[in-house]
Amino acid sequence: MSAQEVAARVRAGQTNRTTRSTSRSLTAILRSNVFTLFNLILAVAVTLVLLTGRWPDAVFGFVVVINAAIGIVTEYRAKRTLDRLSILTAPSARVVRDGAEQQVALDDVVQGDVLLVGTGDQVPADAQVLEVTGLEVDESMLTGESRPVHKAVGDEVLSGSTVVAGAAVCRVVRVGEEGYAQRITSEAKKFSVVRSELREGVNKILKVVSFGIVPISLLLFWSQLNYTGGVRASIADGTWRDGVVAAVAGVVGMIPEGLVLLTSLNFAIAATLLARQKVLVQELPAVEILARVDVLCLDKTGTLTDGHVALTALRPLAPVEGAREALAALAADPDGNATSRVLAEGLADTPPAAVTGSVPFSSARKWSAVLTGAGAFVLGAPEILLAGRTDGPATTALAEVGEAAGTGARVVLLAHAPRGLPTAEAPLPPDLAPALLAVLGERVRPDAAQTLEYFRRQGTRAKVISGDNPVTVAAIATSVGLHGEGVRVEGFDARELPTDPDELAVVVAAHDVYGRVTPEQKRAIVHALQSRGHVVGMTGDGVNDALALKDADLGIAMGNGAPATKAVARVVLVDGRFATLPGVLGQGRRVMANMERVASLFLAKTTYAAILAVSVVLLVWPYPFLPRHMTLAGSLTIGIPAFFLALPPNDRRYLAGFLRRVLSFAVPAGVVIGAVILAVYGYLRPLVGTDDARSAATLVLVGVSLWIVGIQARPLNGWKVALVAALAACAGLAVAIPWVRDFFALQVPTAQEAVVITVGVLVGWVAIEAVYRLLTPLLAGRPAPVRSAADILTSR
To answer: At residue 477, does pLDDT exceed 90?
Structure first.
């Protein structure tokens, strides 16, 4: 192609350049994390408090900033990863232009270019073969087929595939967005947000709360103005500020703002801990998903195996002197093909024999030969070397070949040639003596069997989905004990899979191993499992896995896989170790189990805040707390303990119904707290005044809520007891230290107030313990917990 023709194609847009941006712009990320209902409510509340000039009551506003920052940073990181998505990793391509070979950037390849590809090259664009010299192409990143594919003149080579042997001259037929690899990439690059049960549960609560916030806050503000003498009087003497602050205190109390923040923080901590295990979490909520996965789809190549073909067995058929050394000599041929290189790796400890003559390998002949001091030896396909023979040695050899091939392995035969070195032109002699069988197979990851056994014990069903031969896939699945050690697994040919979604779901439920699966079928299998209510995890390393990984509930990519696969996966195993998955599962379970534990603290607060708001409106009382009181109580009984209780390991298996279990305790406990606070506040306010009554109500709130902390910390151990004691001590110091007491508008209780506070706290403890032991199990649909004192005070 001439320079003028290239320029014409560039002007026509027929270049290999592709769009490398995601559908999520930075503006969209900022908008989705800043302009939320949660942030709007708190921002309005902060603004109103600041307008009153009482900035200590606005410290809760930091939650908005921190939570938005975590979301923005996380999603921007995912955007940058997706923007860097590129299947084609080769830095340049070789083309023939103006009669000479040139190196050009991948983007500068144009339709009609003549490409030169050789061993180790990655094909930059879909092309048709014009001339070929023993070309073998690895398309496993695209199709899942691990064996190299021989290409002849007229065949197509696909963008993203790699040349593993031979060379070819090709003409580009499709470029850019039209290329096979790019079509998969464009689907994979579409942004999607991971589904999180924790976030969905919190969002449901926020939606319910949001319906009541506006009317309750307006009614609360109106009632506070009426209490201080009416609207006109409040505006005249400035007491409207008290009404605003009280209304904000009621609104902030109803919003579980700390739960939103802690969820994000807990995800971030889990991601940091996983990073130390060389696991990259690309979307924070993904750490919870593996705890919920009940079906794990595994790609064979690169997941159960490491993606490399290796010499797995060398079987002697007859005692022929010098056979192993001759095989090493054949493997050491510098012009050999992919098979010879695999043999060379497997025979690295065998010194090759000195070669005095040879016949090079030809894909047409399917054999090669060498002459050594021990005689002549021929290496090739068994059915070629022993074609038409029925004698004993040939029959025995072919039987072993069939047995090995039944495992999905590739087999080559080394035979001794007693008549000397055969010639390339003449037929092979009929008396070749079988000497050695070389069995070639993919290297199974040493950690695969142990990891699969772990998932089997955990009740997670594993399915192997591969583009390779079903027999090969089944053999690998059997070798790693997919259904248990020694249990044979049968493979299902995906070419027989139905296209109807309902019929496909039936087949997928019945079989666990699939071969000859196309990228579209992998995706369909994931959808079929999801249609039956399964939470699906998908692992893989090739471009052929990208679509399925993207649509699975949790996509897990191997670190040595294709960039497209790593970019769309939620989790990337950076070191490619399959054995890392149990650790990821552990983090997911820790997040789910511990967040369920601490969510009760936040939602109990939402419940009692709503009760207090409605009650003071009906009773026309001043609100029992200032926002700073809620900040103090929330920090000591919710924020700080929730952070520590969310960190310890927790291997409890995932159970569906997170929100129901949390609410079954939080709502009754919140009702108890609200009732106790109203009783104490209503009794003391006429006797000691609003300020002292508010201070007493704050101490009662802290005291009763710490019992909830103790319940959620069970089984108790040394550090948990120390945590609760430290929180109680901090509450005491907040009253004892003058400047802290003044900042939080607290009062030192009188003897009378101390008695009332103590009675209120004790009544709250008894009532909440009764709720926990008797009422909550009934609401949650589980047996009541039976615990002795020793059970409560000791850890499992």
So the answer is: no
